[in-house]
Specification:
Radius of gyration: 17 Å
Order of helices and strands: EHEHEHEHEHEHHEHEH
Structural class: alpha/beta
Number of helices: 9
Number of strands: 8
Number of domains: 1
Strand order of the largest sheet: 1-2-3-4-5-6-7-8
CATH topology: TIM Barrel
Largest sheet: 8 strands, parallel, barrel
CATH architecture: Alpha-Beta Barrel
CATH class: Alpha Beta
Helix content: 40-55%
Distance between the termini: 5 Å
Strand content: 5-15%
Length: 259
Amino acid sequence: MTQFVLAACAEMIWRDRPIEWRASRLKEMGFGVGLWNWPEHDLAKLEATGASFTIMNGYLTGRLTDDEGAAELLRTARETAQVGKRLGVQRLNLHGTGLGDGGLPVQPIEVVTGAMWLKARETLCRVVDMAEEEGVTFTLENLNLSVDHPGVPFGRAEDTLALVSSVGHPRLRLNLDLYHAQIGEGNLIELCRKCLPFIGEIQVADVPGRCEPGTGEVNWHGIAKALKAMGYGGPVGMEAFAAGDPEVALEAFRNAFTV
């Protein structure tokens, strides 16, 4: 029996509890901790939990697609890298553009031009140079465009794979979010196989509803068996709401990914 290194997004469960309580409880249950935006939290209290922080948003503002946005992304990513090192965060997460209320892009882009693709790759190369200086690793996450994040550039997994593979550096990996991919692309096992050399973390939530495995249409245990057969050894993070009791949701997640 093999169990993956499992983590859960602290922002999405026990939402009536302080974030440091959530991090401590996840640690007690044997899970790593995923975070969103660090300025909303008391870093000293999070640090004191001793939790293993697997991933955190790696920037505050900015975007990949133009000079002004790239400069802002690099500035806030370097600032965030300092926080990541303080907490021992293993991966710092990026998107094609900054997200605002409800996950909507601060600056939506409906048509991604060739020039934007070239600028995005150049920006990511600059991120990698900074990551080398700081000794950190960034990930680029795919997002679905039809339900949660319309107008985000480079949202599809095929787009994030194209960018990350073209940069080709171990300081830049994929945050392969299978919830988003199921909505936008499907064929999840083959997608995992295609992305495998570049994955830094896999994130999961069931579809529809964005709750724990077993609440929707995806055969997560089958995906777990396929990942094991592929030799995937990285973390799997539940970035999902709990349909009911959070501890029951976390155990369902653990069971799905114990193979």
